[in-house]
Amino acid sequence: MWTRRVALGSLAAGLDRAFPWGKHMRPRSRRLIASVGVAVGAATLAFGGVVVTPLTAGAQTPNPFQRGPAPTVASVSAPTGPFTISTATVASQGSFGGGTIYYPNDTSQGTFGAVAVSPGFFSPQAFIAWAGPRIASQGFVVFTIDTNTIFDFPGSRASQLTAALNYLVNSSPAAVRSRIDPSRLAVMGHSMGGGGTLEAAQNHPEYQAAVALQPWDIFMNFGNDRVPSMIVGAQNDFIAGVGSFAEPFYEQIPAASEKAYVEVAGVDHFLGTSSNTTQSKYAISWLKRYVDNDTRYEQFLCPRPVDSTLVEYRDTCPG
Questions:
Q1: Exactly one of 146, 152, 181, 237 is catalytic; which is it?
Q2: What number is the average pLDDT over the span 255-273?
Q3: CB of 223 closer than 8 Å to CB of 253
Q4: Crossing angle (nearest 10°) for helices 27-46 and 2-18
Q5: 269 is catalytic
Q6: Which of 181, 269, 294, 315 is catalytic?
């Protein structure tokens, strides 16, 4: 048993050097890869004495989920990204109120992660429509939804976000469905849609990321949220004040989970209804980092950024 642990530990260290993005995988996934590597190595040696070349620091394998060119501050701040996009309109499905799908035209780079986005209380889809082209053009399939009624509370919005993702994966037009990687799904929303985002993440630990914009929710604790979650607060929010909502929600998410709290200076609750550059660049970087496992975007998140447009930035960044 001791010998096996040493072998696994050595191989895991080699994997970290050879696959830098691998160290950000969940521990169980990394242990599985290491175990498979040891088993394959042992079998190879047993059948014919073939020499197995050890992993070295120079061995590099591209991240299979990486999409688009290397990012810069300008590229994550731009109103649109490198991908041209198309749209598809979806009628009400009963499980959610319909919406608009934005998807990249490019089919040469493989499939994309998908993000469902909910508006807030008393708000139609139009209030979060900015997220469609801005995020999809960075290399995602984005579904901005209408809720069944504009009065739906966060719990209902959480269910509708999940239904929208299920629709994308299983029932959307073929041109959309063929572009989606069903293992890389995320949720996002504003106000009560932000509360619904955190509820959906807590209910679905298999999701890859969540971005809650000025979230509002009551009688909830997000202590079981295991999905990498970013919360964006607004300094002058008079509806979901950060001291009563965004900050406590961030603190409730376990320290062992990946999480970030971004508070944007000089703006109010309706930040989430606008294509604000600060809000967008951090949301895009978060989605890229955790939906696409793209560590090229980590530079915008870790170490903690020095940004004059922020009041505060907190995260679980080990740096």
A1: 237
A2: 97
A3: yes
A4: 110
A5: yes
A6: 269
Relative to beta strand 229-234, strand 259-264 is parallel
For the question of residue 191 being annotated catalytic, the response is yes
pTM for this predicted structure: 0.82
Q: Which of 229, 230, 185 is nearest to 206 (CA)?
A: 185
When computed from its CA atoms, the radius of gyration of the chain, rounded to whole angstroms, is: 21
What is the set of domains in the chain, with CATH numbers?
2-46 (no CATH), 73-315 (3.40.50.1820)
pLDDT given for residue 317 in this prediction: 86
Q: Give the whole-angstrom CA distance, residue 283 versus residue 213.
A: 9
How far apart CA 137 and CA 2 sit, in angstroms, is 50
SS3 readout for 271-313: HHHCCCHHHHHHHHHHHHHHHCCCHHHHHHCCCCCCCCCEEEE
SS (H, E, C) the chain: CHHHHHHHHHHHHHHHHHCHHHHHCCHHHHHHHHHHHHHHHHHHHHCCCCCCCCCCCCCCCCCCCCCCCCCCHHHHHCCCCCCCEEEEEECCCCCCCCEEEEEECCCCCCCEEEEEEECCCCCCHHHHCCHHHHHHCCCEEEEEECCCCCCCCHHHHHHHHHHHHHHHHHCCCHHHHCCEEEEEEEEEEECHHHHHHHHHHHHCCCCCEEEEECCCCCCCCCCCCCCCEEEEEECCCCCCCCCCCHHHHHHHCCCCCCEEEEEECCCCHHHHHCCCHHHHHHHHHHHHHHHCCCHHHHHHCCCCCCCCCEEEEEECCCC
**Catalytic entry in 191, 229, 280, 285:** 191
Residue 307 is among the residues annotated as catalytic for this protein: no
Q: Is the pLDDT of residue 120 over 60?
A: yes
Q: What is the pLDDT of residues 64-101, one digit of tens each?
A: 999 999 999 999 999 999 999 999 999 999 999 999 99
